[in-house]
Amino acid sequence: MINLVWLVPLFPLLGFLINGIGRNFLPKSIVGLIGCLAVLLSFGVSAGIFYELSESSATSYHQPLFSWINAGNLSIAFAFQVDHLSSLMMLVVTGVGFLIHIYSIGYMHNDKGYAKFFSYLNLFIFFMLLLVLGSNYVVMFIGWEGVGLCSYLLIGFWYKNDSYSSAARKAFVMNRIGDLGFLIAVFLIFRYFGSVEFGDVFAKAALMPAGAPVLVLITLLLFVGATGKSAQIPLFTWLPDAMAGPTPVSALIHAATMVTAGIYMIARSNILFTLSPVTMDVVAIIGLATAILAATIAITQTDIKKVLAYSTVSQLGYMFLGLGVGAYTGAFFHVITHAFFKALLFLGAGSVIHAMSNEQDLRLMGGLRKKLPVTFFTMLAGTIAISGIPPFSGFFSKDEILAHVYEHNKIFWIIGVIGAMLTSFYMFRMVYLTFYGKFRGTHEQEHHLHESPPSMTIPLIVLAVLSVVGGVIGIPEVLGGHHWLAGYLAPVFAMSTAKGTALALEHSTEYLLMAVSVGGAIIAAVIAYVKYVAKRHVPASDHAERGILARISYNKYYIDEIYNAVVTKPLDFLSGFFYKIIDKAAIDGIVNGLGKATSLAGRGLRLLQAGNIGFYLFMMVAGIIALLLYGFYKI
Amino acid sequence: METVTQTIQGVPLNHYILLSAIIFSIGVMGVLIRRNAIVIFMSVELMLNAVNLLLTAFSAYWGDASGQVFVFFIMALAAAEVAVGLAIIVMIYRNTNSTDVNVLNRLKW
Could you list the mean pLDDT of each consecutive 10-residue stretch along chain A, which spans 635 residues? Predict the structure, then answer.
């Protein structure tokens, strides 16, 4: 089975081709079937590979497909690497991806670009699988760029709307900024290690001393790439705007694919990062800052998808925090559980939006609990999971990260717990505003309210189950488990583990940490309940006066405006300068001037050729005299 | 009896050069200034003869006959040229009723 790994990305690619070519004549039922089947088959193969890998004693399998780039001493094979990390990631991508495909059948049913949508989705999965499976940085980079392209296509799916298109463009451009960092890092890796294959690079890097400047530089640049793809400070503003795409796209981008690419890449390159303590600190600080910043923005947002988007940014911050303190397993654990509950929450939000006839404003919802029971219960499960309340999955992964953070730096831990409380608060706020109280929308909407079709609710239920029980793969020892995930991933992080120190907290301390974070989450949930259910508070309208803190948070710290003033405006000015002065005036002037001078000179010289023989003769004699004089004085 | 060579040598070389330059200049001025094609032709002949004179003088002073051979070539050439040139001028006259070179400004295409 494991040597069939090339089938995994092949199926979605075929799905993309079939649906893409046949988009104008294939019936919708066939399109949906092909789209889902492609991912399902990939999932089947992935599951087989996963099973075979966990049974076998080998920890890594390398499958070269063909020699790709050969120039001088540069030799890059198009090869896949299957190990414990990529096999798990494959399962998550295809598994959650499959559920999102199923959901899309219902959600996109009335859309004109139905087949186009499915072909893009398949392409997205294809590139994500390339990213995951690539055995060297270059193949990974293809996938990396590919998901960037697909995110552009999908965010701007409703391209006729200008603001949607510009959101897509923003995502694309911001990702390119990060990609530059990644690309330079890859060049540096080749320069210093003579290879871009993961195996070679890591083996050579492991022999280098910790803190080697080369490693620090490479890892910092890799991290720049990760901040772009995984929406961290300062490149996170594209992610909330990416909500312009259809909801399944948001779910796919946010949960299982693109945004986790940065975490996956760092987890994959863990040894490089472990050996660069400076970068680790940078990663941790950026992660923590992003987690808090996004969480404080999320608490005042009124668009249901925006709340979730900032929540994703915040959760990604936690994952980077985990990576930064060396908790690679914990961070990856959170990737998996987050894929479950964030996909669930987005799909749930999509279901609400579907029922509300495309209304996304929390202030106009309320009381949907009775009308949308399945959506309500599944979203509640997702909310509890993301808030880190046991025994739901989010608790285990977040707690593992926080435990490592505690050991690393107590202040980080305190900030992290505050972030967790904020998470719990804004998530429950969203649930309460959506599902509790009285309905605040129009009559027409109220009349229309209906539960979504089975193609949408079944993925919700499956994801809800996963969100609830997903934590079992990583129950820590202190709670009587043996942390299967840590054991499974141990070979991947072996080199890093050898350099670092294992988590050595007293069990009593661990209990205490859990109690604090769980207690905080519950308190935050209760505060949200009191405010939004008991006191029936509804967020003020856009134009209402707000307190200074609320205003800053509601306006997202004015970061977009700051970027606009600091980056966009000067760039626009510079472009204008180059266009008007340099290009139009200088360069065009020179080019046109040459042309004009030639034609003027021609016009002038033409007059000399009057055909007058006397003049010709005179010129001839004058010329001869001039030549003679020249010769005379020269010699 | 004095030979031709000795007669020629009887006059200083500078005089020949001066005379030749004067005749040549007259020829040039004639070509540049006059408008009648036939006079221009004659001026050309003047220039040729100025050169012939020089060639003969140098040849005599140098004691080498090849200069005088050149003079015969030039004379033959001038005769041929006059034969062709006069024919052209006659044709021009027939077409335009004039031998004024300023009328002939058709060379510009």
Answer: 87 92 88 92 93 85 86 85 91 92 89 90 93 92 92 90 89 90 92 89 88 90 92 87 86 83 92 90 93 91 90 92 90 92 91 86 85 90 90 89 89 92 92 87 81 88 91 81 84 82 76 89 91 83 76 81 86 90 89 93 84 80 91 83
Give the range of the structural domain holding residue B52, as residue numbers without chain letter.
Answer: 1-99
Q: Which among A610, A613, A621 is the nearest to B101, CB-wise?
A: A613
B58 CB contacts (<8 Å, ≥6 apart)? Answer: B13, B67
Residues from chain B contacting residue A618 (CB–CB below 8 Å)? 32
Contacts of B101 in chain A (CB under 8 A): 613-614
Helix (H) or strand (E) holding A332: helix A328-355
Selecting from A612, A618, A621 the residue whose C-beta is nearest the C-beta of B105 gives A612
CB A367 within 8 A of CB A439: yes
**What residues of chain B have any CB closer than 8 angstroms to a CB in chain A?**
28, 31-32, 35, 101-102, 104-109
Chain pair A-B, CB pairs under 8 angstroms: 26
B9: domain CATH number is: 1.10.287.3510
- Would B108 be classed as within a structural domain? no
- Structure tokens given for B78: 């001038």
Residue A180, both tokens: 């530059």
> Strand ranges (DSSP E) for A107-161?
none
Q: Please tell me the pTM assigned to this model.
A: 0.79
Give yes or no for a contact between A104 and A118, defined as CB atoms under 8 angstroms apart: yes
Q: Check B32 against A611: CB less than 8 A apart.
A: no
Q: What's the structural domain count of chain B?
A: 1
Question: CA of B109 to nearest chain A CA: how many angstroms apart?
Answer: 8
Q: Do B109 and A612 touch (CB under 8 A)?
A: no
For residue B75, is it within any domain?
yes
CA gyration radius, chain A? 30
Whether B82 is in a domain gets the answer yes
Whole-angstrom CA distances from A125 to A30, A47, A129, A146 are 19, 16, 6, 10
A572 CA: distance to closest CA in chain B (Å): 55
Instruction: Provide, as residue numbers in chain A, all residues whose Cβ is less than 8 Å from the Cβ of B27.
Output: none
Domain coordinates of chain A in residue numbers? 136-198+209-539, 560-633
Helix (H, G, I), strand (E, B) or coil at A503: coil
Distance from CA of A589 to the nearest CA of B (A): 34
Q: Which two tokens stand for residue A554?
A: 């509601």
